[in-house]
């Protein structure tokens, strides 16, 4: 037998190469955190499908208790993948978990799209279920949901998560939790918002665990989950939950920890133009909202020269031809840019304007303008108001000619629009005014300061009022935090309209519905009859009277109207009312607390 000797150096090189090859193979086989998140998504999407199929197969004969248990099991699985579905497939998310309200396109007003998804299903499951029709409706709704789930599963192979998108999606879903979740918007009948919040928070921990987050982040997730779990699961628990304390002690620190993990791991923030800056630590931060998101791409920058020009034009009578009226005539700065009137006078003889003058504070932080949302941008609203014979009665050709005769304006336009060959134009008038109005963003109330950590800024009644506003009184399901208007979180890119059944007068003995048909007048969509954009609640202590027709002089009257169930509660015929007709059962003390909270939304920045 012959033995061949092996040199030690050669053996060492061989072993080194073998180890390197093994490590290289391991590196190739090892999944990235984002790939593991995708596996998590696909696994829970599969579990959601299984839960819905089981629900459908048992729905015909299951007891009422079993129906509710199956419903909650499906919701729990949905909440674990909601972050991704909402982020990548918003249309599917709308069909799975949108509001139980019909939709229609202006181009096809007769083609009404009925609502589908969990919120429709919830009304069936938590109502009387002992008749065959309801059982059939439950089965049909589950089939609709399965169709959407199968679509998502079909899209899954081509879906790619990036690290930045994972963090972005989780952050947006936390915003969604704090607004739609804690307010009860997401679970209007079952009142399961708190246990579902715990599931969402657990999901935020499970998704980010693949990135090996800091102990601080894991601890904040655990503390947040424990806080909502400790509250309980009953309706009384939902009504009594201290949302203010939760947001300050748990939610905001969780968001801060999430941002810290992202920065520590050098994961970039997505480059997206959004209402909330992707890099903001929280949507309560002073600079969280970007007004440019709500502006057209050619909006004038907020330079000192443009703002000075816009402010001057705001007070310029020339815009209304010979009437002497200015923008400031109806939007008085000392009245939070309203006029204190039920409706203002029309320039047409013997006629009043149809609608109450809205505040301009934070008017730039909404995706549409006017009570009926008929234009998107402030620039277009300015054109319509100035040109309207009843409001300003101006003619832009005459306005520009008159302004050119004033040397001061020629100079101001030249300084504001330095790159334009002809600076003083109708287009630049609108742009300067719009930029000035966008500068009237005010998010520095005592409430904002409280949410930024100064817990001395709110009194006990004000905190109670906030908790009622976001809970039992259901105000927060339409006036979305933190803008407290109808812009839908977390993207705030569309606005909701509500049919409240507002009366024509305060006569409760012979109440009649206000004749203004609102958004219906634009496209004749049936379910939009008497619908109006949800306005902001911020600064409303300075903007009386209230509602689109100025019918109520005090916040107490407004809250009493809601407490009675809106127009239906007053006995009016409002078949399209979106406001729940059930009485809220608010006590006098609770009503006063809500008014106190609304007072805390008065801005301190002038």
CATH superfamily of the largest domain: Cytochrome c-like domain
Low-confidence stretches: none
Structure summary, number of beta strands? 4
CATH topology of the largest domain: Cytochrome Bc1 Complex, Chain D, domain 2
SSE order:
HHHHEEHHHHHHHHHHHHHHHEHEHHH
Shape: globular
On the 0-100 scale, what is the average pLDDT?
94
Strand fraction: under 5%
- CATH top level of the largest domain is Mainly Alpha
Count up the domains: 4
For the largest beta-sheet, the strand count, sense and barrel status come to: 2 strands, antiparallel
Helix content: 40-55%
Concise overview:
The chain is mainly alpha-helical and 606 residues long.
How are the secondary structure elements laid out?
Blueprint: H1 8-29, H2 33-58, H3 64-88, H4 90-97, E1 103-105, E2 108-113, H5 118-125, H6 132-155, H7 163-183, H8 193-208, H9 215-231, H10 235-240, H11 243-264, H12 304-314, H13 327-330, H14 378-387, H15 396-404, H16 407-416, H17 426-438, H18 446-451, H19 460-469, E3 497-499, H20 520-523, E4 531-533, H21 555-563, H22 566-569, H23 588-600
Helix pairs in contact: 2-3, 2-6, 3-4, 3-5, 3-7, 3-8, 5-6, 7-8, 7-11, 8-9, 9-11, 12-16, 12-17, 14-17, 19-23, 21-23
